[in-house]
Amino acid sequence: MSERPYLRIATEEAFCPPDLFDRYRRIVADGSLDDPGFVTQWRYYLESDSARAAFVREALVDLESRRLADMDAAGIDQAIIALTSPGVQAMERADAVAYARYANDVLADAVRAHPDRYHGLTAVAPQDPEAAAAEIERGHELGFKGVIVHSHTANAYMSDPKYWPILEACEALGTPLYMHPNTPSKGMVGPLIESGLDGAIWGFAIETASHLLKILVAGALDRFPGLKIAVGHCGEAIPFWLYRLDHMHGAIVRANRYPDVKPLERKISEYVRENFWITTSGMPWPPAIEFCQRVLGVDRVLYAMDYPYQYVPEEVPMTESIDASPEVLRMLFQTNAEALFGL
Ligand code: 1DF
Ligand code: MN
Looking at ligand 1, which residue's alpha carbon is closest to its atom 15? Predict the structure, then answer.
């Protein structure tokens, strides 16, 4: 932390209280959740004896020496930490509301113990949008810097206005909503699971990008124009698609092809450029990062590691090898995160 003229702030880092594993084990065993992606993913992380699954299990629950040592070894100064995917979104409504509060209290204690290293995001239960909005306010009072949602909740999407109290609360507080991946909902996951494509390799991105596009197309950002949305994994590929999204959305609307697809106040690319901030989690690949900086602006791209799921210290210098000035590297690793999350 001496020679470098900037801090490295990692913005999409996961944790869970140890008993989340028991909750998930029960959900997998009792079949209460109609979500094959969840079952496949958590069977692996709960049961596999692979080195990777064992590391993830140990590292997720550690908010003390192991995590701090891993951050030090990779040269990460600060982490913005959130409850792991899919958080409470796999639980029944009442359990989800209570567990979100509990997980937020656990995280708030860790942030209080290490205020120079950790920041937190508020976990919410979209199953109860009014309770979620109240928890967003409580999280704000606890000092959390944003809100995390892990894409679909039991196969339901926030394009449905019944979830909009969550968007409204984020906009009102000026606090970013981090739309983090989940495995694809049951209607799209089947053909992916049989090829091993349901998880972080690909399914996460199409699930999460589709969710964000559903929210935009529903007009949610016309209703909440000040909403700040953070998106990982280089924007889940949305930046690459902006031209075609604008072209085809315009064509669909002009043709009045779908009764529920109405004209919007802005082009899809305008919502993405004006309301989205993207992070480099899982994507330490210079061509992709440089493309995103070019399309969205160098003030819109933030560094993330995705600890513990992608703890690869060599990816830090890989990210730093982008074609960028020292000032732009400082924006990527430090000041964009400080500005967006109000650190
Ligand atoms: C994985 C990746 C799993 C991420 C995650 O949650 C997760 C993975 C269970 O690699 O299986 O959040 N991720 O953010 O990329
Ligand atoms: Mn992640």
Answer: 200
Amino acid making up residue 84: T
pLDDT tens sequence across 136-166:
999 999 999 999 999 999 999 999 999 999 9
Distance 235 CA to ligand 2 centre (A): 12
- Compute the distance between CA of residue 54 and CA of residue 68 in angstroms, rounded to an integer: 18
What are the tens digits of pLDDT across the range 208-255? 999 999 999 999 999 999 999 999 999 999 999 999 999 999 999 999
SS3 149: strand
Identify whether the C-beta of residue 302 lies closer than 8 Å to the C-beta of residue 280: yes
How far, in Å, CA of 277 to CA of 230, rounded?
5
With a threshold of 0.85, does the pTM exceed it? yes
Beta bridge partners of 119: 80
Spatial contact of 11 and 304, defined as CB atoms under 8 Å apart: yes
Main-chain dihedrals φ then ψ at residue 198, nearest 5 degrees: -80, -25
Contact criterion met (CB below 8 Å) for 264 and 222? yes
Encode 175-185: b = buried (16+ Cβ within 10 Å), e = exposed.
bbbbbbbbbbb
What is the 159 CA–ligand 2 centroid distance (Å)? 22
Interhelix angle 93-113/129-142, rounded to 10 degrees, is: 10
